[in-house]
Amino acid sequence: MQNLFANLPNSLPAELTTVLAESAHIRIERIVSTGNSSPAGYWYDQDEHEWVVLLTGEASLRFEEGETLIMKPGDAVLIPAHRRHRVDSTALDQPTVWLAVFYSS
């Protein structure tokens, strides 16, 4: 058994990603951020679709075409493969915990 909120760090130099389960077609990750963001000018451009839900904290997720989502606990979004996006910010006062499901069609 795992608890997604166990052993959350208070400070990290970079996001902490833990693979919870995976197969040839799907990968489920817990991602923990503590005020982290994507490097300046960097855009994620993934071969897989990503469904992500924010469990704790807060985050600003921006898409290359200009849309910005301010995510709070319980907010979820499906990011199609190759839709370029970045994390502009995450909460500074508490860990931000994401659950991300990556899959191919």
Automatic annotation (TrEMBL):
Which residue numbers delimit the Cupin type-2 domain? 45-102
One Pfam family it belongs to = Cupin_2
Q: Which InterPro entries match?
A: Cupin_2 (IPR013096), RmlC-like_jellyroll (IPR014710), RmlC_Cupin_sf (IPR011051)
Q: Which CDD domains match?
A: cupin_reut_a1446
Checking Gene3D superfamilies in the record gives: Jelly Rolls (2.60.120.10)
Q: Out of the domains of life, which is the source?
A: Bacteria
What is the official name of this protein in its record? Cupin domain-containing protein
Give the organism the record lists: Aeoliella straminimaris
